[in-house]
Design brief:
The protein has 7 helices and 10 strands. By secondary structure, it is an alpha/beta fold.
Length: 243
């Protein structure tokens, strides 16, 4: 695992954007695995800036998102489909037909998960997968469990994840209790992985992920077994890694 230590969130975001930009320039029709949440927002802002400056062309890029809340329609302002439109897709020249996100409105969980795995297979796999890190060690919505999930699946969100996502909704009862997510096996098939972590509140779990035992109780710890992982984290997030 390569570790890039940055001064703050802004530097983390710029560094991550440059890695994604390099991937696009090396392989213009690459498949990017994209993430949502607050962590990658700065990276997306920098990618938009590079595109507007004429340095980055998304016309052949294909993308596949990690996850989506189950039960939210695409026009819901807290759906990840909506998030990606507002934070990246509407601002660059990526083709809508080249963007892929699980359909949270599909009531048949088994059918939707199978469909999304088929989409990923048709894309030929992910060249570079972006990940954030949950406070309980989740990646995508793969929560602590007794075993690593192999494929895209429907997951029951833990109380800690629901609490963390409460700030995006008017009421806690409005937070979805389930999500569709790429499985750990799906994520691990990506050729390269980029893990972004920011903030002192992630320092304890990041130490477990990088230096602790590999266990499904800390889902991101499986990344220790991936051959090509780059961690970009700020000083605050890395503050307990060597303590």
């Amino acid at each position: 695992m390569r570790i890039y230590r940055t001064a703050d969130y802004q530097e983390m975001s710029r560094t991550a954007a440059m890695i994604l930009a390099a991937q696009i320039q090396i392989k213009p029709d690459c498949v990017l695995g994209l993430a949502t949440g607050s962590t990658p927002v700065g990276m997306y802002e920098e990618l938009i800036r590079l595109h507007r400056a004429g340095h980055l062309d998304f016309s052949d890029v294909r993308s596949a998102n990690l996850d989506e809340y189950r039960g939210l329609t695409r026009d819901h302002d807290q759906s990840y489909y909506y998030f990606m439109q507002k934070n990246l897709f509407e601002h660059v020249n990526i083709k809508p037909e080249n963007t892929h996100i699980p359909d949270g409105s599909c009531p048949d969980a088994e059918a939707e998960c199978a469909r999304y795995e088929a989409v990923l297979a048709q894309l030929g796999g992910v060249d570079l997968q972006v990940l954030g890190l949950g406070h309980n060690g989740h990646i995508g919505f793969n929560e602590p469990a007794d075993a690593f999930a192999k494929a895209t699946h429907c997951v029951d969100l833990t109380a800690s994840t629901i609490k963390a996502n409460r700030r995006f909704f008017e009421r806690e009862e409005d937070v979805p209790r389930q999500a569709y997510t790429m499985g750990i096996g799906t994520i691990m098939r990506a050729a390269k992985i980029l893990l972004l972590v920011s903030g002192a509140d992630k320092s304890d779990i990041l130490r477990e992920v990088v230096a602790g035992p590999v266990t499904p109780q800390v889902p991101a710890s499986i990344l220790q077994f991936h051959p090509d992982v780059t961690l970009i984290a700020d000083e605050a997030a890395l503050s307990r890694l060597h303590s």
